Amino acid sequence: MRGVNKSPVSGFTLVELLVSIVIIALLLTIAVPSLQRAMALAQQSNCMGNLRFQTQAHALYGSNNHFNKPPIMWKMFNSFGYFPVTPNVKMNGETIGQGILVHKKYLPLRTLLCPSSSMIEDSLMDQDAWLKKSVSGSSYSYFWRHSDSFAKKADLLSGYKYSEAEAKGRYGLSMDFNAMSGHSYMGAFGSADWPSHPVLGYVNIAYSDGSVSAEDNTKIILKPPFNIEAKMTWWDLAHKARRRK
């Protein structure tokens, strides 16, 4: 009986294994940033698509409601509460602002939730709150009124038209929420910054004429103390960016 010849089994040496690991690590170092940027660009494209849906919903809502903007008001006992600029879509169980567009079937809720990877956790919280809680929000801050005064006025209850804001050059409608640390609306992010699209450095803005733009999110940012005046100034920065173009 002939003996069976066995070929020696070859394997990686330790040096070859280390060289392979180094090469793989270098390839990942090169590939990962490109992949992250490609994913961020896709997310931003989806986000801008959301904003375009919002402008279309506003156009349809306006045409059915004497061209008044969806109000940001809710009942508080025998009085009314309101925010001129807010990401809230429901207060005290009542839909407000862009929440009205969802409630009246002009928009699906998902178009109010930014697809940016930095916003996923917060978007899930918003979606759950819309279904289960009396107060809920969105990833986009909606702008209803922008008068020259920051004071609250009784005529807010009479409605406010798109054309009245546009006549003052204030076309801002909806924007990625972009705030500095410690903002009370940060939800899942606690004290962390809330950049709109951190990989690309953009904040996306929709205007009442139907246009959508991407701006530098270090220049259009809500800063402390986060009061009504600060929010109005934040929106002024968005309008200035539009006028520069």
In words, what does this structure look like?
This protein is α+β, with helices and mostly antiparallel strands and 245 residues long. It has one domain (15-243). The protein is built from 5 helices and 8 strands. It has helices at residues 14-64, 98-103, 120-132, 162-166, 228-243, and strands at residues 73-76, 79-82, 85-91, 94-95, 136-143, 172-176, 202-207, 212-216. The chain has a 6-stranded antiparallel β-sheet with strand order 4-3-5-6-7-8, with helices on both faces. The protein has a two-stranded antiparallel ribbon with strand order 1-2. The longest helix has 51 residues, at 14-64. It is elongated, with a radius of gyration of 25 Å.
Write a brief structural summary.
Helices cover 37% and strands 17% of the residues. It is an alpha+beta fold. Strand 3 (85-91) and strand 4 form a beta hairpin.
